[in-house]
Write a structure and sequence with these properties.
Blueprint: H1 3-35, H2 39-55, H3 57-70, H4 76-120, H5 157-191
Helix pairs in contact: 1-2, 1-3, 1-5, 2-4, 4-5
């Protein structure tokens, strides 16, 4: 193996170590912070996932260059590894989509909760006085015939449900991506 081959191999391994690990940690941490409704951390994890997913393409590029230099493209384990890596990248795109949706849902739930809190704690003269038939509008206390407003500080159930659906998809796809990374690692170590 020439110096250039060794250099490309070290780049390949370096990209794998310093990009695959952080993107996996960011993906696996996202569901926890969605459950805690911490939008700031979920945004940070989304940004981390995006950055390291793009940089992880260096693993693919260095691997392709190394395989080309060593004329290894005819080996089935390499073809399987390349295919699995492309599948993992496609799944990362889906995970980033779900992270973005979860952020939007949590932000919307936060805004709705803030509006409900502001309406519930607004100035006393801005709130309607009961007119004697059970509520401010005479409809049994439910407001304009709609569902009751959420408790202050709690988002509506639909928004929370949507965020939890995204959380479940992120967790399951993240698990699949992690298994793919491990299979690729085993193929590389076993046959490399």
């Amino acid at each position: 193996m020439s110096f250039t081959d060794r250099l490309v191999l070290w780049l390949h391994v370096g990209f794998a170590i310093f990009t695959i690990g952080p993107v996996t940690v960011a993906i696996m941490s996202t569901p926890r912070y969605i459950r805690k409704r911490n939008v700031v951390i979920v945004r940070y994890l989304y940004r981390t996932t995006r950055i390291f997913a793009v940089i992880s393409l260096g693993v693919l590029i260095a691997g392709l260059v190394l395989a080309n230099q060593l004329n290894d493209f005819s080996k089935p384990w390499l073809t399987a590894s390349l295919t699995l890596f492309v599948v993992a990248i496609a799944l990362l795109v889906l995970i980033m989509r779900d992270q973005h949706r979860a952020i939007a849902t949590l932000e919307e739930a936060e805004e709705t909760a803030a509006e409900a809190t502001a309406a519930a704690t607004g100035p006393p003269d801005a709130r309607a006085e009961p007119d004697g038939d059970g509520g401010p509008d005479g409809d049994g206390g439910t407001g304009h015939g709609s569902e009751p407003a959420p408790l202050p500080g709690h988002p509506p159930a639909d928004d929370v449900h949507l965020a939890y659906v995204e959380r479940g998809r992120i967790a399951s796809l993240g698990g699949v991506v992690s298994v793919i990374w491990l299979v690729i690692l085993v193929l590389m170590v076993w046959n490399g």
